[in-house]
Amino acid sequence: MTAPIVVGTDGSTCADRAVEWACDEAALRDRPLHIVHAVEPAPYSYPLLVAPEMGKSLAEAGQRILTAAEKTANARQAGIAVTTELVANTTGPALVDQSARAFELVLGHRGLGGFKSLLLGSVGLWMAGHADGPVVVVRGDAVPEAGEIVVGLGFAEDPAEVLGYAFEVASLRGATLRIVHAWQEPAILVATGYSLDFDKVAEEVRERSARAQAPWRERYPDVQVIEDIVQGHPVTALCEASRRAALVVVGTHDHKWFEVPRLGSVSHGVLHHAHCPVAVARSHEQA
């Protein structure tokens, strides 16, 4: 069975954009689309706390949300197979369970809950660090139809996962791939008056980048690559590049906290501030 693109929805405007993005992704990858809405069972399962009909009302509202999302999906991409599922569970665990059977999980950057001033909702941030497999958080005011694929390249971890995902997406979309590596001089060097030679740093980065890219360039010879080596903060560089991008791709750390891959500070910052959708590239085995 072909693993689907799974998108979570709560009926919010951000979730609607995520459904649209997931529709296009499913069509691009020739995969089915599975739309999920979670209805939390507590406290509605305790009759002393709320009216007994509240749980039924919420389930009915959830089904209406799914019906509307399915209608949107069929109108946007008539050729894809669309299924829906109403899940009785808290949102985070429900989506983690779904991600284990998905090719990719798609979410809006903020839902109906919480504070509207937050740049990224708690569910999106939590899923980016806990989901089993790739997660796309759809940011921006509209679903981008064109633009570069931007990928952040670092060497603290093996970049194969993030580069492989980025090259594949760029090939599928016929888009240019922009590889961004940003670095800052260590504070201790600045404090002591030492300075690094930017040209030498850039040369070393290009050599390491070329070695990391080599297998992916061979696999995807159609992808045009642009490399940016920037002296500055990686979050700032990636978010600036995101202004002209269709997607920014970031990774996670290999080392884990409580058996969960850690979302690094750069990925965390990009998820909060990017101007376009952000993909957290992670294999199912890594999660």
TrEMBL record:
Bilayer-crossing regions: none
Lineage: superkingdom: Bacteria
Residues in UspA domain copies: 2-139, 149-282
SUPFAM superfamilies: Adenine nucleotide alpha hydrolases-like (SSF52402)
Pfam families membership: Usp (PF00582)
Cross-referenced PANTHER family: ADENINE NUCLEOTIDE ALPHA HYDROLASES-LIKE SUPERFAMILY PROTEIN
Family: Belongs to the universal stress protein A family.
Protein name (database record): Universal stress protein
Lineage of the species this protein comes from: Bacteria, Bacillati, Actinomycetota, Actinomycetes, Streptosporangiales
